[in-house]
Amino acid sequence: MSQKTEFLKPILSSELITTLNAAIGERMLILAGSCTAFFDGRIKSTLELGERILIIKKDLSILMHGVSGVKPLNWQKPKQGPISFLKEKNELVMHTKRKKTEEELWIRFRSIDFVILWAGSDFSSLEIYGDESDLVKYLVEHPSIIEKDLQILSTEFPTDVGYVDIKALDNKKKLLIIEVKKRKTTPSDAFQLKRYKDYFEKIEKKKVRAMLIAPSFPDKVRKYLENNDLESKEIDWKTIFPTISREKNVKIDDFF
Amino acid sequence: MSQKTEFLKPILSSELITTLNAAIGERMLILAGSCTAFFDGRIKSTLELGERILIIKKDLSILMHGVSGVKPLNWQKPKQGPISFLKEKNELVMHTKRKKTEEELWIRFRSIDFVILWAGSDFSSLEIYGDESDLVKYLVEHPSIIEKDLQILSTEFPTDVGYVDIKALDNKKKLLIIEVKKRKTTPSDAFQLKRYKDYFEKIEKKKVRAMLIAPSFPDKVRKYLENNDLESKEIDWKTIFPTISREKNVKIDDFF
DNA sequence: TATTGTATTTCGCAT
DNA sequence: ATGCGAAGTACAATA
């Protein structure tokens, strides 16, 4: 009964219902079959009959996946509320209701292909490096990549219009505001930089420089930057990627 | 061989490798076991040994789920590149490489608990209603919710700085630009509205009104709106939620 | 095909 | 808890 992987008979019996309800929160449940679904919450969604996979993890997170795509068709975050199975009109019904938000999810299986209970565990951590904060950190440690004789003043400097990635002085002691993007820039990025420039020119009562650093600049963005006296610097992060490394998000999955 | 659900022997044999490679893109593959993973792409991530579930869908999307949480530990979007299994150092290794971005994902299974090939299909559509476009639509049909004697001119009106949700004339024939948010507002929402106002005042060469409609306004947002002659209107969408209904995203999963 | 904007965004971090 | 910005965002609509 407490074997690592248990294959249940895919037949809608009261025994199945009992076993499923007992497994919730104890083992991961993987169930495939033909179902409909209804979600009522921040949004409403209905899903007509189709074949899908339902996964209920030990932390009570719910995932219902269709045959394609990375995003689940329906889901619920961990520990939002009790989950129960019941038999209704010859269908296997899963129901959950979030305690706080009153959001509800119903999944009704008309047929079942397989049901698995799996007792997996995981104590390792996902290490990630190479995100935006790593890039800012790297630039601060190697300012000459941006330009010669740059003096870094601060990072994540708070202003009324947001946090400035890098605040620095150039070789003529002129203030340089830098926004760093890991991805291709968008018009919004340029607008944001403009707000920073305006903010500092108002505060300092003199011209300041402002620069967007990113791997790619679409024409529209480049044009806006030029028209607004904003600078751009293209950096292909891959070229410095191998040299940066950092451990973060050292997160251990809870042990149930 | 082409049964709907096939349970493979969870033993690392060359037969398993062959069967898995043959199943890729043909049936959904669900594999549980103890593995490590490495992703190298826009970011780098490493995942130490732990028990996880690997799912490869027929559209070649890859999901690797840990024992908790809704978000996969590693994943790949559909049709990004070929996927292959191989045997290496007595481990079952899954590898994929995106053609364009050169991003790679490696998953190495040290042990396998179960392997399933499943021939599910789904032709139904997820119907969603109550999202932002529904709200805009509802407001356009019931403009008096915004204010009396409002005349709607257009929706999704394109400007140099983005698309305006609603363009209208108030009871004094003054232009009113409206931005609708289903969620709590952020400073960026207010900045965006300001850009719209500036844009239209430049075009029209006279003052225009601009309003943000949303269920909630943090102090910082409210203050920015006040300081910039921008209006706000609080609407709790739940009050009108039950009355709006619409079908969308009528999308059929490809048949493989 | 590339761009744009939403999302039951999710997630981490700072307040 | 709330606020805020980044994300391998994913995904659909659109130009």
From TrEMBL, chains A, B:
Source organism, top-level taxon: Archaea
InterPro entries: Endonuclease_NucS, NucS_C, NucS_N, NucS_N_sf, tRNA_endonuc-like_dom_sf
Domain Endonuclease NucS C-terminal: start-end pairs: 132-236
Residue ranges of domain Endonuclease NucS N-terminal PH-like in the record: 27-116
Keyword Nucleotide-binding in annotation: no
Assigned keywords, A-Z: Cytoplasm, DNA-binding, Endonuclease, Hydrolase, Nuclease
MF GO annotations: DNA binding; endonuclease activity; hydrolase activity
Pfam families found in the cross-reference section: NucS_C, NucS_N
PANTHER family for this protein: ENDONUCLEASE NUCS
Protein name stated in the entry: Endonuclease NucS
Organism: Candidatus Heimdallarchaeum endolithica
